[in-house]
Amino acid sequence: MRLDADADPARWIPVTGSLGWKGRRHRKAAIGMLLGQMNQAAGATSRPGSGFAAWAMSQAAPLLMRKADGRVLVWTWKAEPDLIVAMATAQELTPQLRTARAMMPIEYDDTEEFRTPYLGVGEKLVMAMPPEPKTPPFATYTWDTGTHLITLQAVCADKERFGTVIGAVDEIARTLRTVEDLTLGETPGVLRIDPA
Q1: How far apart are CA 15 and CA 5, in angstroms?
Q2: Is 59 helix (H, G, I), strand (E, B) or coil?
Q3: What residues form DSSP beta bridges with 114?
């Protein structure tokens, strides 16, 4: 199962599929922001070499995402790449994944219904003020297709500006869809029904 979405090119830069020099500044900024947030959440201080780590990961990220074969899509904010990063993933719903989701902290039960034209009804969780003070604000959108868990996660570096960019993440979530490799005539008798 592969994913596709229509992110507004005036607001978002796709990190997925950008190889070499194309998009490297945005890749590096997005990865640097995520590494910084992880260090902060762990209570570590940023080290001088962390810029190199972000650069090295930004070079490897496109190849790793290409290897994921469309199961991972990543975007970063065009005007300010280290402000917010959005990542969509498709995971097979194994018993272990279902168990892990069932064991999440109670704060993660505070979801609201989120309907899209392609994936149907899902859940949206917004943590503008996470319970842990070191945790950055984030939003998670999930859809259970029965066989896969489709997730869109957005992490923001600035708690005060999170509310100004979450609407743009909603727009990506509404266009998120699965893409199947079906050749015309390969599966006769298949009827496609809109999940909504």
Answers
A1: 13
A2: helix
A3: 122
- DSSP element (H, E) containing 179: strand 177-179
What is the pairing mode between strands 12-14 and 2-4?
unpaired
Range list of H helices, the chain? 24-42, 50-67, 95-102, 162-175
82 touches 14 (CB < 8 A): no
The model's pLDDT over 16-28, given as tens digits with 9 standing for 90+, comes to 765 554 556 666 6
CA-CA distance, 155 to 87, in Å (whole number)?
A: 9
Rounded Cα distance, 165 and 185, in Å: 43
What is the per-residue burial (b if ≥16 Cβ within 10 Å, else e) of 90-102? beeeeeeeeeeee
**Residue 169: how many other CB atoms lie within 10 Å:** 25
**Band of residue 168 on the pLDDT scale cut at 50, 70, 90:** very high
